[in-house]
Design goal:
The chain is mainly alpha-helical. It is built from seven helices and no strands. The protein has helices at 3-13, 19-32, 39-73, 81-101, 106-128, 136-152, 156-184. The longest helix has 35 residues, at 39-73. The radius of gyration is 18 Å and the shape is flat.
Length: 185
C-alpha cells in the first residue's frame, strides 16, 4: 500500500469524517507547503507558539483541574496526574476511535470501547496511587511516543483519524493560547 492508496482511502472517507479530521487535513496541507528557506524563522516562531501553549495549558486547564480533583477527592493528586490523564485520554481515545472505524459487529465495538475504557481507568488509578511522581518531562517525552504508537498501530483512514485525535487537541490549545497571548499584548 502506497501513498496513492492512502489518499484514495482518505477521499473515500472525507464525507463522513468529523470536522476535526477535516481540520487535520487542511493543517497538514498548509504545513507541507511551507517554504524550507524560512525554516529557522519558523522554528523560532514555533518555539514561542509551543511555550505559549504550555503556559496557557498550565494556567487554564491543568492547574484548575488539579484543584477541582483535590476538592472532589479530598486529597492532592500526584504532580503530573492531570497531564498524564489528558495524555492517556488522547491516546486511548484515538485508538478507540480507530477501532470503531473498522467493520465489526456492534458487540465487538462495545467490547473494544469497554476494554480501552477499563485500561484507561486502571492506568489513572495506578498513577494516582503511585509513589513515583511523573513530572512535566515525562509527559513531554511520552506524548510524541504515543503519537508514534498510534501511527504504527493503525493504517489508512484509521491512521489519519488517530493522528487527528492525537494532534488536533494539542494544536487547538496552541491556537487558543496564541490568540490569548495576542489579545493580552
Amino acid at each position: 500500500m502506497g501513498l496513492k492508496a492512502d489518499i484514495e482511502e482518505v477521499t473515500q472517507h472525507w464525507n463522513r469524517s468529523p470536522w476535526r479530521v477535516k481540520t487535520f487535513y487542511v493543517i497538514t496541507l498548509f504545513l507541507s507547503t511551507s517554504s524550507l528557506a524560512s525554516l529557522s524563522e519558523a522554528v523560532i516562531k514555533w518555539k514561542g507558539f509551543v511555550l505559549d501553549a504550555l503556559m496557557f495549558y498550565r494556567q487554564w486547564i491543568s492547574n484548575p483541574t488539579a484543584e477541582q480533583l483535590a476538592r472532589i477527592f479530598g486529597r492532592e493528586m500526584p504532580p503530573g496526574f492531570v497531564d498524564s490523564a489528558v495524555l492517556y485520554g488522547l491516546f486511548f481515545g484515538a485508538i478507540t476511535r480507530g477501532l470503531l472505524l473498522r467493520n465489526s459487529s456492534k458487540m465487538k465495538h462495545t467490547a473494544d470501547v469497554l476494554f480501552m475504557a477499563s485500561i484507561y481507568v486502571a492506568m489513572l488509578y495506578l498513577i494516582s496511587h503511585t509513589k513515583a511522581e511523573p513530572n512535566e518531562t515525562t509527559v513531554l517525552v511520552l506524548y510524541p511516543l504515543f503519537v508514534l504508537m498510534a501511527y504504527v498501530s493503525t493504517k489508512g483512514a484509521e491512521r489519519v483519524l488517530a493522528m487527528a485525535y492525537m494532534v488536533i487537541p494539542a494544536l487547538g490549545v496552541g491556537i487558543v493560547a496564541a490568540i490569548f497571548t495576542g489579545l493580552a499584548k
